[in-house]
Amino acid sequence: MSDMDADMSVPLYDGGSFRLYGNRIEKDKGLFFKSTEVTYYDDVVSARLAGRTLTIARTGWKPSIMLDFRRKEHARVALDIINLCKS
């Protein structure tokens, strides 16, 4: 396994029900039938921060993702991670 593969398997930010990696966002879904929704940064059109909620708009017909944080500072860090990894 190369160094690049190791970096993509370790989350840069773990928000409990979602994780930010170097190339994607993973969000847990479902109560009884658990699954994981994966969004790659290439599919992200925009990210908007409003208080403790980060709304991520995706390409095409895919619905937006809303990530809720406990603190406003954590939401700002997550937005910075997305901006850094997207560029």
TrEMBL record:
What superkingdom does the record give? Bacteria
Instruction: Give the protein's recorded name.
Output: Uncharacterized protein
